[in-house]
Design goal:
This protein is mostly helical. It is built from ten helices and two strands, in the order H-H-H-H-H-E-E-H-H-H-H-H. The chain has helices spanning 9-14, 21-46, 53-56, 58-108, 112-133, 156-173, 179-204, 209-234, 238-259, 272-287, and strands spanning 140-143, 146-149. Strand 1 (140-143) and strand 2 (146-149) form a beta hairpin. The longest helix is centred in the first third of the chain and has 51 residues, at 58-108. The chain is elongated, with a radius of gyration of 27 Å.
Length: 288
């Protein structure tokens, strides 16, 4: 995730980051510019349609269609951001629940071996969940003498959650914690799986194909028809105008595509690896 100062306007305006949409759209912008120049030349020099009233009325259509397109893109961007923000809230809940579980276990567990187990296991769950959401293979994870062997053919976070719950149940059956104490920590143990399921829902349920495809086609045909209507009022200046409009519309769609899946390695994705590392640090502090 990109770290930045929101008050530094000059950096935003004049710096082109690797994730900036301008870099991705340069080839298409060049093609759109050549296309607009070709249409401008044909209409002004070859076809000589400057006196055709029907062609001159095309901008009226663009004004209406442009308003509809702006509403679609606004809805598209808001929907994508809601998915990104929901992912952030889920990982925030994972951080808090990991701390709460560590706090309670630090009071319940008097044996060093039990504290060491939960110290490593709780941190392992966050690390495994981060890799699981990034589709990275997690075949085996070892932590300071604690062997948490994970079968990569099975659901990795579930395996770690199962180990955590079994160990907590062992504490209860052996009489090391009471039934009330086991009931208290059960909420945090259960929340791990709930958070994993919610993150998987975001990860595995993209925006419907028909909706995404329709917006892309809408933008394409809207931009392709712009030179026909505005060439008579703008002349050859229609080229940079059409390129700029395409850049704005296509950038909004690209940004929405990137943030609708917040679990990955893109610059605007959530820093799940960093949050997992923070969970490990805080849990170790509480259970040491």
């Amino acid at each position: 995730m990109v770290q930045y100062n929101p008050k530094d306007w000059l950096t935003f305006i004049f710096r082109f980051h690797e994730s900036d949409t301008f870099r991705q759209l340069i080839p298409m912008m060049i093609l759109i510019g050549c296309y607009s120049g070709g249409i401008a030349y044909l209409e002004l020099e070859f076809w000589q349609l400057s006196n055709n009233s029907h062609v001159k009325n095309i901008p009226l259509m663009h004004a209406t269609v442009g308003f509809v397109l702006s509403l679609l893109l606004a809805y598209r961007t808001n929907t994508a951001y809601e998915r990104w923000w929901e992912g952030r809230k889920l990982w925030g809940a994972l951080v808090n629940n990991s701390r709460n579980l560590a706090l309670k276990l630090s009071a319940y567990c008097s044996e060093e071996t039990e504290r060491d187990f939960f110290k490593n296991a709780i941190a392992t769950y966050a690390a495994v969940l981060s890799k699981h959401l990034m589709n990275e293979e997690v075949s085996q994870m070892l932590f300071e003498g604690l062997d948490l062997s994970i079968d990569h053919q099975k659901h990795q976070p579930n395996q770690v959650a199962k180990i955590l719950f079994q160990r907590a149940n062992d504490l209860y059956t052996s009489g090391k914690i009471s039934g009330d104490q086991f009931y208290i920590i059960n909420a945090e143990l259960q929340s791990f799986t709930d958070i994993c399921g919610a993150c998987e829902r975001i990860k595995n349920t993209p925006i419907p194909y028909s909706y995404s495809s329709f917006i892309k086609k809408f933008i394409f045909f809207y931009v392709m028809t712009l030179p026909f209507g505005y060439v008579f009022s703008l002349g050859y200046y229609v080229i940079p105008v059409v390129v700029f409009i395409f850049y704005v519309l296509a950038s909004l769609e690209l940004i929405a595509e990137e943030i609708e899946d917040p679990f990955g390695n893109d610059d605007n994705d959530l820093p799940t690896k960093k949050m997992a590392a923070n969970i490990k640090k805080h849990v170790e502090e509480l259970l040491s």
